[in-house]
Amino acid sequence: MSEKKIPILAVIGPTAVGKTAMSLDLARALNAEVISVDSRQVYRYMDVGTDKISLEIRREIPHHMIDVADPDQVFTAADFVAQAKDCVTRIRARGRVPLFVGGTPFYYQALFGGLLSIDVPTDESLRARLCAESAEDLYARLEQADPESAARLHPNDKFRVARSLEIFLLSGRKASELYAQQKSAESPYDVLYLGLFRPREILVSGIEARVRAQFASGYPEEVRWLLDHGYSPELPSMQGFGYRELVLYHQGKMTFEEAIMGDAVATRQFAKRQMTWFKKFAPAVWFDLSQNTAEENAAKLLAASRAHLEGELQS
């Protein structure tokens, strides 16, 4: 007889749709703690550009998987899975409800869908030497060592190309073979995806408004601080939309308005990719937040959540 799965709630949707506000209402009603599913919020010192929840709210409602790595650390999907599973165990041990909130599709798939990054040792000095090579030379080395991995990566994606080479050099095995051999154990979680969306024109308007608010609320100064403290623009953490545009602004290669619009356009493109992935991967219950009041939407999400957690809440 198979073991009963752990009921899990996950609030998903594109960036700027309103996941945070809805998740706070849910957390308060369900005695829940939030586990952030955001590949940018894991980094310390990157607050404005990643829209981290305020410390005041975090004191009221515990949030996990925020500020768990420095910007110059490699943080993989395997790291997220290991730490998120530990969060679930500890939250449940306190008699509280784990509530996943965020929009990084690969993290959801890694945790709930079985696609987990290979957990092999890392070597920062080796990685630094690899990343010092040109993208062309790196890709040529990977094509020779692991053509299958090379075929699925873009030649200019130096970080992932270097990571595949790092795996090969440290383990002596091709990353593609390790992925192929990895068996996806049945997930111990029964996930209810609560999907939030708004009509495209409303979302686009909201994205630009949020970007402009960030730029007026210390975002340029945050990026200046990171650069002044030695965090290279080449780091994966600094390659996210907004950060890369502000780096160019500080380097005099882009005007302030160009940086704003570059961030807004990249964010819109990311939101579109998020929705494409979520609709393909996550069997969600979708809620159009433009159709009802915030109170009505919160009530609908709460009702669906309680139904999913019914056994847990009664025990």
General description of the model:
With 315 residues, the chain is of the alpha/beta class. It has 2 domains: 6-116 and 184-314, P-loop containing nucleotide triphosphate hydrolases (Rossmann fold, 3-Layer(aba) Sandwich); 124-181, Histone, subunit A, CATH 1.10.20.140. The protein is 54% helix and 10% strand. It has helices at residues 19-30, 55-60, 77-93, 105-112, 124-132, 135-145, 147-152, 158-171, 175-181, 200-215, 219-228, 243-250, 256-281, 294-308, 310-314, and strands spanning 6-12, 32-36, 63-64, 97-101, 189-197, 285-288. A 6-stranded parallel sheet has the order 3-2-4-1-5-6, with helices on both faces. Strand 2 (32-36), helix 2 (55-60) and strand 3 form a beta-alpha-beta unit. Helix 1 crosses helix 14 (294-308) and helix 3 crosses helix 4 (105-112). It is globular. It starts with 5 loop residues before the first strand and ends with a helix. The model has no long low-confidence stretch (mean pLDDT 89).
End-to-end separation in angstroms reads 21 Å
The neighbouring-strand order within the major sheet is 3-2-4-1-5-6
In the CATH hierarchy, the third-tier topology of the largest domain is known as Rossmann fold
Number of β-strand runs: 6
The succession of helices and strands, N to C, reads: EHEHEHEHHHHHHEHHHHEHH
Shape: globular
Q: Which homologous superfamily in CATH is the superfamily of the largest domain?
A: P-loop containing nucleotide triphosphate hydrolases
Main sheet properties = 6 strands, parallel
Give the radius of gyration: 20 Å
Strand content: 5-15%
CATH domain class name of the largest domain: Alpha Beta
What is the arithmetic mean of pLDDT? Answer: 89
The helix content, as a percent range, equals 40-55%
Q: How would you classify the helix and strand content by structural class? A: alpha/beta
Number of domains: 2
